[in-house]
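Module 6 notes. Inverse folding takes a fixed backbone as the condition and produces residue identities as the prediction. Think of it as a translation problem where the source language is geometry and the target language is the twenty amino acids. Below is one complete input and output pair. Work through it position by position during the lab.
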């Protein structure tokens, strides 16, 4: 948990320094963009729930996920849920805003490189399915950020997806 907190501090600090915080959100469309993010997040939850039902029969893939989710057990669900939410917010601030603004190259190149960085950091967790999740979540979040010109939708979808996976995935994987 301490390392996750440290990464959150780095991501948020980078956003404050180089992410142009005043231009990150569209205050005139907060509710509309939040609803977009909620809907997109719930759609992703549905897609990943179906995926979990398919891969739960493959121990090689599910064992690392179950290990990761075990952190939320033993009465630590609330702090893990809070850290999961804060981490999701920080990731969006960094990968969908700061990295896209500061990486070299054209806009599409910067978005792709930011996505690859997001996937690479996810790979360090040692959970192969987390890399797939980072790719899907990262693509949808990048599309939402570009479409809305704001991070409200990507942040909401990321938090909705992350918390849903934290709460629902153990049941889906354990139902085998």
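Target side of the pair, the amino acids:
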């Amino acid at each position: 948990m301490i390392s996750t907190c440290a990464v959150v501090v780095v991501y948020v600090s980078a956003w404050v320094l180089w992410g142009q915080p005043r231009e990150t959100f569209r205050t005139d469309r907060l509710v509309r963009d939040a609803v977009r993010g909620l809907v997109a997040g719930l759609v992703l939850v549905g897609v990943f729930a179906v995926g979990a039902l398919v891969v739960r029969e493959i121990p090689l893939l599910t064992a690392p996920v179950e290990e990761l989710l075990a952190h939320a057990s033993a009465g630590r669900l609330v702090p893990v849920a809070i850290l999961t939410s804060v981490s999701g917010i920080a990731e969006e601030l960094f990968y969908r805003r700061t990295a896209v603004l500061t990486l070299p190259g054209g806009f599409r190149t910067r978005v792709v490189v930011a996505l690859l960085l997001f996937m690479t950091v996810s790979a360090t967790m040692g959970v192969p399915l987390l890399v797939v999740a980072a790719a899907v979540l990262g693509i949808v979040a990048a599309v939402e950020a570009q479409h809305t010109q704001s991070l409200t939708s990507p942040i909401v979808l990321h938090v909705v997806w992350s918390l849903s996976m934290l709460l629902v995935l153990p049941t889906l994987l354990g139902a085998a």
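Reference fact for the lab report: The first helix runs from residue 2 to 18.
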